[in-house]
Amino acid sequence: MIAVAGAPRRRLAAAAALAMLVSAASALAHGLDPAALALKETAPGIFAVTWRASALRLPGADVRPLLSASCRRISDIESGEAADHVILRWSIDCGPGGLAGATIGVADLAAAKINALLTVTRDGGERVQVVLSPRQPAFTVPARASRWDVVRDYTRLGVEHILSGPDHLLFVFGLLLLVATTRLLVQTITAFTLGHSITLSAAVLGLASVPSRPIEVLIALSVLVLAVELARDEGQGTALRRLPWLMAVAFGLLHGLGFAGALAAAGLSGDDVPLALLSFNAGIEIGQLAFVAAVLAGGALLRRWLPLAAARSTRPAVYAMGVLAAFWCFQRLADWVG
Fold it and tell me: In Å, how far are 205, 223, 263 from 270, measured between CA atoms?
């Protein structure tokens, strides 16, 4: 981590992040609302298929499962809808060889800007779990499951989750401006990961279940609260400035609830839940610290080349952050109640 003094560091961080704020304005909401595809073998070669996807669709995106050509549907499709997602269920016959060596994918992940959680449960309880992404939208089912695949895929999911979410990056950027020392900044960001772990674990274990749309509104509201706090005079010494990790924990709790529903729908087995959660949260921490390091490094260059612009950029950056957060609040609230 790059160590820089408090006030100069905040000014250079603000200058470095102005470009990020402008580009984030084009993102109406967080892109990651994962789909979930689960296939459970109920008899040799026969699989019950469950497909869960968001009820909202981006124009031009047709997110749907792509099953192996060797599998044929043997039942009608049953559908159900909740407030924010659609669930489809049917059965397929993949022959005596089952799904070993078969390729399964999800169409249009890149267009929808989401990931998909794939779970294949074989007769006897063995599970294969992977995260499909826009870069890797298909997976060839191996003869045996690998724990390394769980670590790799969920770590990557955690990194992509934080780096593809402008609202979450904006919150971390706000912490750069709020926290005076690098050590306290690292502690505050880590508090976010701990908060995320609590609600994510609770949801996967069936201890908590909250609809995603109100949570997304609260996430945007948290960014707005942070922007308002940053707009205050630093000399006021508010509780949020003295104990910034409290805000980070609260934000982490909201974020965990916003994502946990789809992760729980993947049907993680008891053996893989700790490994998947640990890997996902490690990815979140890696992504956050990488973003912080990039902003500080970019800010240091700007401060060296354009010191006057760096010194005067904090206030415009805070106002831009507040405007964007307020827009997200209204936009997500309209999606929720409309």
Answer: 9, 35, 14
Contact by Cβ (8 Å): 316, 197: no
Count of H helices and E strands in the chain?
A: 11, 10
Two tokens at 85? 């997602």
What dihedral angle (degrees, nearest 10) is formed by the CA atoms of 220, 206, 133, 65?
Answer: -120
Strand, coil or helix: 247:
helix
- Report d(CA 176, CA 194) in Å as an integer: 18
For 30-66, the pLDDT digits (tens) are 444 678 899 999 999 999 999 988 777 767 778 999 9
Q: Is the dihedral of CA 95, 99, 105, 106 positive or negative?
A: positive
273-305 and 166-178 helices, crossing angle to 10°: 60
Is 251:192 a contact under the CB 8 Å cutoff?
Answer: yes
Give me the chain's average pLDDT, please: 78
Q: How far apart are CA 163 and CA 176, in angstroms?
A: 16
Q: How far apart are CA 82 and CA 242, in angstroms?
A: 41
pLDDT in tens, 164-181: 778 888 888 888 888 877
Q: What is the pLDDT of residues 197-214, one digit of tens each?
A: 888 778 767 777 777 778
DSSP string, 82-102: -SSEEEEEEEEE--TTTTTT-
Q: Using an 8 Å Cβ cutoff, are 103 and 138 in contact?
A: yes
Q: Which two tokens stand for residue 33?
A: 């609302």
Secondary structure of residue 115 in the 3-state scheme? coil
Residues facing 10 on adjacent strands:
none
Of 13-27, 127-141, 236-250, highest mean pLDDT: 127-141
Question: How far apart are the C-alpha atoms of 247 and 171, rounded to whole Å?
Answer: 10
Q: Are 41 and 94 in contact (CB under 8 A)?
A: no
CA pair distance 55, 84, nearest whole angstrom: 5
Residue 248 pLDDT > 70: yes
Distance separating alpha carbons of residues 111 and 62, to the nearest angstrom? 8
